[in-house]
Amino acid sequence: MDQYEKEKKHLFQYLRQTLLTGVFYNVFTFFPNFFDYFRLRKLLNIQEFTEEETNTLNECMNNLIEVISENLGHYLTRYYIKDLYKVLKIRSVLEFFKTDFIKFINENSKEKLKKITAYNSDIGEIPNFDGIPESHYWWTQHHRNGDANPPEFDFEEYSRIVCPDYKTL
User: Does 100 share its domain with 140?
Assistant: First the structure.
C-alpha cells in the first residue's frame, strides 16, 4: 500500500500542476507513474476513487487524451528495441484509460482513445523480401506473406524471438 500511495501522490501532484499551468508538455515522462498507479490499483483491488481523485480526473482526462492523441506517434519514434517494455507500458496505460477510467472521459476523447488503441491490420507497403534471409527472424511469416499479424498473434513469443533478453530490458 505504501508504494501505491507514493505513486498516487506523485501522479496527482503532476495532474494538479498541469491544471494550474494548463500545460501537459511532459505527459509522456509520466507514463511510468500512470502505469504503476493503475497496476497497483488493480493489484490491491481498489475500485472506488476518492473525491480528490474524481475531481482531478474529471478535470484532466480529456485534455490528457487530447495531448496524447496528437503526439503519441511522434513520441513513439524516439524508442528503440531496448525500450520494448516502455512502449508496452504506454499501451497498458491507454487500455486502463479505456477500461477503468472511462467514466472521466467525454465522447470525443473516447473516440480518440479508440483510434490510438485500435488493432490496425494495415501494415503499410509490403517490403520486397528478396535477399532478406531467414536469419532476419524479426520478420514474421505473416510479414513475409504480406499480411498483418492476426489479432491472436502470440506477441509474447514473438518478443522472446526478436529480443531474446527482453525479460531483462
Answer: no
8, 24, 29, 63 from 32: Cα distances, Å: 12, 15, 7, 19
Q: Cα(103)–Cα(40) distance, rounded to whole angstroms? A: 19
- Cα(98)–Cα(104) distance, rounded to whole angstroms? 10
Output b/e per residue, 62-82; b: 16+ Cβ within 10 A.
Answer: bbbbebbbeebeeeeeeeeee
Q: Are 65 and 109 in contact (CB under 8 A)?
A: yes
Give how many domains the chain has, as a whole number.
2
Secondary structure letter of residue 140 according to DSSP: -
Q: What is the DSSP letter of 41?
A: H
The overall pTM is greater than 0.90: no
The domain of 137 spans 123-164
Q: How far apart are CA 26 and CA 41, in angstroms?
A: 23
Query: Low-confidence residues of the chain, pLDDT below 50?
Result: 166-169
Tell whether 84 and 12 lie within a shared domain.
Answer: yes
| pLDDT for the residue numbered 132 | 78
